[in-house]
Amino acid sequence: MSSIPKIVILGAGYGGILTAQRLQKELNYNEADVTLVNRHDYHYITTHLHMPAAGTDSIENTRVSISKLIDEFKIDLVKSSVQEIRLHDKKVILEDGTLSYDYLIIALGGDPETFGIPGLAEHAMSIRSINSVRLIRSHIEHQFALYKNERRPQERINFVVGGAGFSGIEFVAELADRIPKLCREYDVDPALVNIYNIEAAPTALPGFAPELVDYAMETLKKKGVTFKLGTAIKECTPHGVILSTGEEIRSNTVVWTGGIRGNRLVESAGFETMRGRVKVDEYLRAPGHDNIYIIGDNSLIFNGERPYPPTAQMAMQQGVCCAQNIVATIRGKVLRKFEYQHKGTVASLGKGQGIGVVGNKTYQGWKAAQLKKLVDLRYLYVIGGIMLVLKKGRFL
Amino acid sequence: MSSIPKIVILGAGYGGILTAQRLQKELNYNEADVTLVNRHDYHYITTHLHMPAAGTDSIENTRVSISKLIDEFKIDLVKSSVQEIRLHDKKVILEDGTLSYDYLIIALGGDPETFGIPGLAEHAMSIRSINSVRLIRSHIEHQFALYKNERRPQERINFVVGGAGFSGIEFVAELADRIPKLCREYDVDPALVNIYNIEAAPTALPGFAPELVDYAMETLKKKGVTFKLGTAIKECTPHGVILSTGEEIRSNTVVWTGGIRGNRLVESAGFETMRGRVKVDEYLRAPGHDNIYIIGDNSLIFNGERPYPPTAQMAMQQGVCCAQNIVATIRGKVLRKFEYQHKGTVASLGKGQGIGVVGNKTYQGWKAAQLKKLVDLRYLYVIGGIMLVLKKGRFL
């Protein structure tokens, strides 16, 4: 047994990868053992998942092998699934082993929030992983094939997207771009296909200025999207959705993007949570556990009265800060308080279209789409340098 | 009403298209009205369907718009589905109308022969049309997506092909070529995937010399195909197949290639049939109906004691002969007796592999694969000239 501190990072998403990379950079030889645990041997770019889900970009442009992002001489990589976090034993139970830690970083990502809507967990798909988006893509294409081999049931070519937040809108836009291609491939009249975007809140894209929201909705309506705002999904069945208005939309394809809650592993570890999230201290530590950092979807940080929404931007900044604080703790130095720097928000609206806010400037259309690509390329640069940008970047 | 004879061709497969093209060429202006009825507005190349079914070639390389193959100033094209042939009224009932005829060419193609095996019609797919092969392709891919989102059930990645005749072997070969690509796309270990080819007869590929059959089987075994010859499918269930040995193979994908019988429309029209086929006279006419020609899968022609198997080659030659005989009848000339000219047989075994017999020469491997491509290119040339060869031909 080594006497040097053991650092275990759970999850290699935005937060976990940034933590690992920063620790790798800052720690000296033999200063700590670092282990990164992830279910897959790849890191995926969650904000890009809406494209392979719709089938408008490849899976390979959406993920990177973790061994390309970290130095396995400095960090141990364990491909496994976390089953339990045992705080009193300082142990993590994996599906095929256990790991003990001195410092733990919980960067596991969230679970879909279904708000208790009956049938949603059973019958809807969600955009949450490489596996889930491959399923959505292949499911959608399969509906067209089935439609032509059955008695042309309308529910095969009605597509329902629940949620008109960031992910819902970005996915719906890609789907609207993809449908005409599927119609050509399967000889289906595009006029027969329906895309419904259902949102319980009175407006789409909360957080954007009303004129940008209007622009986004007009753009998507022109692409054939039917919006039902101020309308909740009351129930999801094997045959579609029943809305709060009583209307039923028959559909074999319901994609739920209505939100993210904290990971159930965090709740069951015994932390005090609000919707599965832990209100961390100013250094990103779990209350009462100075050796445990919680970042990303499982952390709750308040901006005045309201919590910040969990975003990639937030998780990345938390990753850097928590790595610095762990190094500082090991060295007996002063910790840094986390302060979120909001750099802007850009939403894609499909090919060549988008909306964005950077500082106090707003963008729409082609410029916003370019900006979105720049944000994506910058991320690839941050985690993998220029080689990764050239390999996975979308420039056109 | 015109007083010139009305010729109606049912089906635009190999036989129907060749008949239509030859009538178009030989008939003078106002000598007859010709109508070609087909369910789709495209002709498809049945002998090529195994490739898009496996996903190794595109749908577009497998079909041609009928309007590119015939002159619509000379031949009327009706896109409709035949519901009934009323011999005593000399009428064809379509799903959206009726057509009366003086001469009828039945070139409708066959139905899959399931030999009464329970569950096969309900749970197996068959390679019979553009729609059916798009379904097979998307179904197979979807199994991989589902596999990764479920608890890795083996039946998702067990593939069963019933029948080791021409179509079964050609499909199994393409599937074996396709699986490694799907495994890469969906992160599935290829060693976990099984392809079973089940055949009730004691050998595969009846009609080929034993050494070619051995070569074909060795080639496919190397690609990972498991053969079960001399083994019948006793039952097909929603979960797989039960074999005559009692063994159950769990599989969500059963593709049945076990044979073709005559079209049910021919039986219900009142013709005397054997397995749905009509033994036509030496001029290709239905017995007792001098104005009705039956060609392709619905005709039965004996080669000594045994009937010729229904092939593209046979249907094409019949199409030419029946067109000539109809023209001769209209002109009061002598009819030509049909004599089948066997030009050879080539079977593809996947990329760069095949077996073939032309005259008394046999071919295997790369040469046979080239020969197969030549046969395909020649067909495109026959029906569409050099432009179609350039547009749809596969040269590599």
From TrEMBL, chains A, B:
GO biological process terms held by the UniProt record: aerobic electron transport chain
Gene3D superfamilies: 3.50.50.100
Entry keyword set: FAD, Flavoprotein, Oxidoreductase
GO terms for MF: NAD(P)H dehydrogenase (quinone) activity
Family annotation (Pfam families): Pyr_redox_2 (PF07992)
This protein's record includes keyword Oxidoreductase: yes
Swiss-Prot/TrEMBL cofactor(s): FAD
Transmembrane segments: none
InterPro entries xrefs: FAD/NAD-bd_sf, FAD/NAD-binding_dom, NADH-Q_oxidoreductase
Residues of the FAD/NAD(P)-binding domain: 6-319
Phosphoprotein among keywords: no
Signal sequence interval, chain numbering: none
Family: Belongs to the NADH dehydrogenase family.
Protein name: NAD(P)/FAD-dependent oxidoreductase
Species: Paenibacillus lemnae
